[in-house]
Design goal:
The protein is 64% helix and 10% strand. The chain is α/β, with parallel strands linked by helices and 577 residues long. A hairpin with a 2-residue loop joins β4 and β5.
Length: 577
């Protein structure tokens, strides 16, 4: 896991190496300073020798200057390395997610991915900075300070060896009990993000149904769970500070007690005791820093595991060895296709589907809720992988295509239309980033969007809010259709994407398709019979199986499901009128 994460350091390796190097130099200076202080006291102050005082004083000032410079450089390189590492981690995770199939994305919730890209990466960033700076400084300081203290007085230095096991046992207890709690906390963060995202996304529905109290309670419950877990973890981590203070004061008392006796018996000088007290503080501060690192690593370990899950996840949609890069035409063939969203599913969403669609045909797909209409069309651009059989486009199995090349020739207007923050032009250019103004106007006219766009004060430069909240549902659908047409695809899929458009506009869109893009295969998933009744082929889906297939007239005569829907939408509407 750690090796995998460290691959994201990349161009910041130099900074990651220089930081501990300068930390080591800083520590050497700091360890030398108490020794020089001892010489200053014993050889200069005690003997009243001003020349010696000046000599050791100048050396002390120089060492302090070097320590300050090395510390500043270590901090600078550690900051650059950690922030760069975090930047690369987010980059690698984000690009990894971009290559996921829908099945991979379904495995991780949106809220969980957002938490991993933000909170978890920040935890790892902080831990990494501590590792390349403090995690180097603490052990190096402790080792050098121990060596120097044993050089000053070996017997008195044995006090340190008595304290270290007490501290080690306490830290081990805290770590083993706190880590499982932090693992649980970050999962609750995922749930909290999910609640917030869901609430903000559906805020209009929440307000229209006056469900603010219900949503507030949901948020409060999750927030309370996080508070409870964090409080439990912090109570454990809180033992770290008193434990450190106990060890520090115990050490200082023992050194003062035994040191005073040694000075009285002339076995030790005042300068040596002062230096030993300084080394004691350095050793104990090093232990305190190690305990801080320990705490940070406990917190970041759970974050590392969650980030590694994203990076280690392999997309189940990959190109073959020699992928086909050209799509010949828009013909589509389903051969004995079976599909299930999960390997553990008890039954298929699509079961033994066989369809032949010639290039340029207009195909209507109708069926009840849950009949797998959306699933059917999502297999064409290989958004999901079939679990049995094969889907062919242009006479080639979709698994043999280069995924990008295939999807460039299949334009899909999804059931949930999405517009991004930016101008109408910027949204349209998702279909073709090099499209001219004339091309955009043409496709908008085909999608019956040009007329309402021209009514906006800024026309095609009108700013679209995030999610398209400042345009109506029908306007959003027509912009999305125009965006898809701008790709000039061989296959155009409209997944119930004219549901918010009135029947007259729907008819104009279909007529424009027939006249302007006759060579493009058009697949229209709809609930309204009027949207598909003039299609070349109409497919009736029921419970993942093809219940009927033919023209409108044929299905009205032969298919009970289609006939029932047709009668309910025509005769029922007439009676109500």
């Amino acid at each position: 896991m750690i090796k995998n994460l460290l691959q994201s350091v990349r161009e910041y390796k130099k900074d990651s190496i220089l930081s501990p190097v300068f930390v080591s130099f800083e520590v050497i200076m700091e360890v030398i300073i108490p020794f020089l202080m001892a010489r200053l006291i014993d050889d200069g102050i005690d003997k009243g020798n001003m020349k010696t005082i000046a000599y050791w004083g100048v050396i002390l000032i120089v060492c302090c200057g070097f320590s300050l410079a090395f510390g500043a450089l270590a901090g600078k390189y550690a900051a650059v390395a950690s922030t760069g590492f975090a930047k690369n981690l987010r980059h690698d995770m984000y690009y990894k997610v971009q290559n996921y199939s829908f099945k991979n994305i379904d495995k991780f919730s949106t809220a969980s991915i957002v938490t991993r890209l933000t909170t978890d990466v920040t935890n790892v960033q902080n831990a990494y900075q501590m590792c390349i700076r403090i995690a180097v400084r603490a052990p190096v300081m402790m080792i050098f300070a121990l060596v120097m203290s044993f050089t000053v007085n070996p017997k008195l230095s044995l006090v340190f060896l008595c304290v270290i096991p007490i501290l080690a046992f306490g830290l081990f207890y805290i770590a083993t009990h706190a880590h499982p709690i932090f693992e649980r906390v970050f999962k609750r963060y995922d749930k909290l993000n999910s609640v917030v995202q869901e609430n903000l996304h559906g805020i209009r529905v929440v307000k229209s149904f006056v469900r603010e109290d219900h949503e507030t309670k949901k948020f409060k419950d999750v927030s309370q769970d996080i508070y409870t877990d964090f409080s439990m973890a912090e109570r454990l981590l809180a033992f770290n500070q008193p434990l450190m203070q106990f060890c520090i004061y115990l050490t200082m008392i023992l050194i003062s007690w035994f040191g005073a006796k040694l000075i009285v018996s002339d076995s030790m000088t005042t300068g040596e005791l002062m230096s030993l007290m300084s080394y004691a503080m350095q050793i104990l501060m090093s232990l305190m820093m190690l305990s801080m690192i320990f705490v940070m690593l406990i917190i970041s370990r759970a974050s590392c595991e969650r980030i590694a899950e994203i990076l280690d996840e392999q997309s189940d949609l990959v190109n073959g060895e020699n992928p086909v890069t050209q799509v010949r035409d828009g013909s589509i063939v389903f051969r004995n296709v079976n599909f299930a969203y999960s390997d553990k599913a008890e039954r298929n969403c699509l079961d033994n589907v066989n369809v032949v669609i010639p290039s340029g045909a207009t195909v209507g797909i109708i069926g009840g809720t849950g009949s797998s209409k959306t699933t059917f069309v999502q297999l064409i651009p290989r958004l999901y992988e079939v679990t049995g059989g094969a889907v062919e486009v242009g006479g080639v199995d979709v698994r043999d295509y280069d995924i990008e090349s295939l999807r460039n020739e299949v334009a899909m207007v999804l059931q949930k239309n999405v517009l991004f923050s930016g101008t109408i032009k910027e949204n349209l250019r998702w279909g073709n980033e090099n499209a001219t103004d004339e091309e955009m106007v043409r496709v908008c006219k085909l999608a019956q969007a040009h007329s309402f766009i021209e009514q906006f004060p800024d026309k095609y430069d009108t700013y679209i809010e995030q999610g398209g909240t400042n345009v109506s549902g029908g306007q959003k659908q027509r912009i999305c259709i125009a965006r898809a047409l701008l790709k000039k695809p061989k296959i155009l899929i409209l997944d119930d994407s004219t549901s918010a458009v009135d029947t007259a506009t729907d008819a104009l869109i279909r007529r424009a398709f027939r006249e302007e893009i006759p060579d493009t295969t058009k697949i229209i998933v709809a609930q309204r019979i009027s949207s598909i009744q003039d299609a070349d082929i109409i497919i009736v889906l029921d419970d993942g199986k093809i219940n009927g297939m033919g023209t409108h007239d044929e299905l009205v005569e032969s298919n009970e499901i289609y006939k029932e829907v047709y009668q309910s939408q025509t005769k029922g509407g007439a009676e109500n009128g």
